[in-house]
Amino acid sequence: MHDLISYHHLRGMGIDVSLDVESIRADFPILKRKLPNGKQLVYFDNAATSQKPQCVIDSMSEYYSVYNSNAHRANHTLADEATTALEGARKSISTYFGTSPDQMVYTSGATEAINLVSYAWARENLSTDDVIVLTEMEHHADIVPWQQLSKEKGVEVRYVPIDIDSFTLDMDAFEVAVEGASLVCVVHTSNVLGIRNPIERIVELAHSQGARVLLDCAQSAPHERIRFDDSGVDFVAISAHKMGGPTGIGCLLIKKEVMGQMGPFMTGGSMIKTVSTDGSTFQEGHALFETGTPRIAEAIGWGAAVEWLEQFDMKDVHSHINRIASWTAEKISEIEGITVYGDSSRNDSSGAVSFLHNSIQSQDLAFLLDEGGFAVRTGHHCAQPLMDALGVPSTNRASFWLYNTMEEAEAFVTHLSDVVDRFSDK
Ligand SMILES: Cc1ncc(COP(=O)(O)O)c(C=O)c1O
């Protein structure tokens, strides 16, 4: 275990302490892993999914080995324990995100959370005259549901472009696009550029038009503390697996006043009050949207992850990651033939560094990096409209989390330089 008492003690005394990364790393068994070629794993694919601390793995294993049972159904001891753990996790997670348990719906991840808004809110409230504003830097999870809705309901979808020089959202264009809008769907932090959008201004402009705001926090939640009730945002979508939790779970946070405007999403068991051959009546609040057997083990694992994260000041986490990301971006941009997409020198960026070499294909480069033990993501990152705006088919992306070190970044830059020296067209 890391020395949390002294970490908090020092912070409490107003002393600036950076993260005790070596102790943090000790909580992640996978980080000790060597690849089949004998190379030490350096995991730089955190924007795709983070690794899990031992306490998350243990909490899920304990559920399956000690009190595995369905929740919200039977009255026996195991069922009680499973229900208490599921709802206890909801309390921990919603508190972590600055809201109450009844405003949080468990989903399979950010993708399902966004689909939930499109089915349960937008299909109930929007029609031909309505406008949805998206940005060019959205993940496909925040584009395709709205395109489908547009086909079905005739809703207009507007895309706000990025400023190609600064890699930021064109806020002048946003101000024009938001006029007359009913819903603004925007990514908090881009999974490709690492840029954090000015959400406070976006909410202000959207609300001045009477538009609701859906914020995709899949990438920001691992890097900063989301305080839902204070944010003014109407919906927040989050994935657990990018912030130390398991795959298969996430949530949608919903403003109280908006919940009442929503209809059912998936139907079946759990979300009903009564069912007869004449029809059914439904639950209210978050229960309306949680259908079938819940994701019990996953919720318990996510609860353990947020309790683990509670130990840190996310500002320290952010500055640690940002320091590694900006150093890496700067160094690799000096390597001949490499272009970095995004501006990691901004201190609000999230730790995703996307880059491309002008003659080594991104897939080949990823393979050569993997040979050195470095796990990075390659491809369009589920953001093809953004790739189109950048004028590239794909990028390589190194993304960092709190357990990564400057030593790993230095080794990465050295290896990348060597690879480029060996393989680029001279
Ligand atoms: C910005 C963003 N939004 C949404 C998603 C979708 O998350 P999930 O696949 O966990 O549902 C991702 C995943 O990469 C993402 O980066």
How would you describe this structure to a colleague?
It is built from 15 helices and 17 strands. The model is unreliable at 1-6 (pLDDT under 50). Helix 8 (199-208) links the parallel strand 7 and strand 8 (212-216). It has 426 residues and is of the alpha/beta class. The protein is globular and about 70 Å long. The N and C termini lie far apart (50 Å). It folds into two domains: 4-52 and 313-423, Aspartate Aminotransferase, domain 1 (Alpha-Beta Complex); 57-309, Type I PLP-dependent aspartate aminotransferase-like (Major domain) (Aspartate Aminotransferase, domain 2, 3-Layer(aba) Sandwich), CATH 3.40.640.10. It is 40% helix and 16% strand. The strands form five sheets. The chain has a seven-stranded mixed sheet with strand order 2-10-9-8-7-3-4, sandwiched between helices. Helix 12 runs parallel beside helix 15 (406-423). It has helices at residues 4-12, 21-26, 54-67, 77-96, 110-125, 144-153, 171-177, 199-208, 228-231, 256-259, 296-309, 314-333, 362-371, 384-390, 406-423; strands spanning 42-43, 104-107, 131-135, 156-160, 162-163, 168-169, 183-187, 212-216, 235-239, 250-254, 272-276, 279-282, 338-341, 352-357, 374-375, 377-379, 395-399. Bound molecules: pyridoxal-5'-phosphate. The site of pyridoxal-5'-phosphate has 12 residues, from helix 5.
Strand and helix layout:
Layout: H1 4-12, H2 21-26, E1 42-43, H3 54-67, H4 77-96, E2 104-107, H5 110-125, E3 131-135, H6 144-153, E4 156-160, E5 162-163, E6 168-169, H7 171-177, E7 183-187, H8 199-208, E8 212-216, H9 228-231, E9 235-239, E10 250-254, H10 256-259, E11 272-276, E12 279-282, H11 296-309, H12 314-333, E13 338-341, E14 352-357, H13 362-371, E15 374-375, E16 377-379, H14 384-390, E17 395-399, H15 406-423
Parallel strand pairs: 1-15, 3-4, 3-7, 7-8, 8-9
Antiparallel strand pairs: 2-10, 5-6, 9-10, 11-12, 13-14, 14-17, 16-17
Helix pairs in contact: 3-11, 4-11, 5-6, 12-15
The protein binds pyridoxal-5'-phosphate (PLP).
Pyridoxal-5'-phosphate is lined by residues 109-111, 139, 141, 187, 191, 216, 218-219, 239, 250.
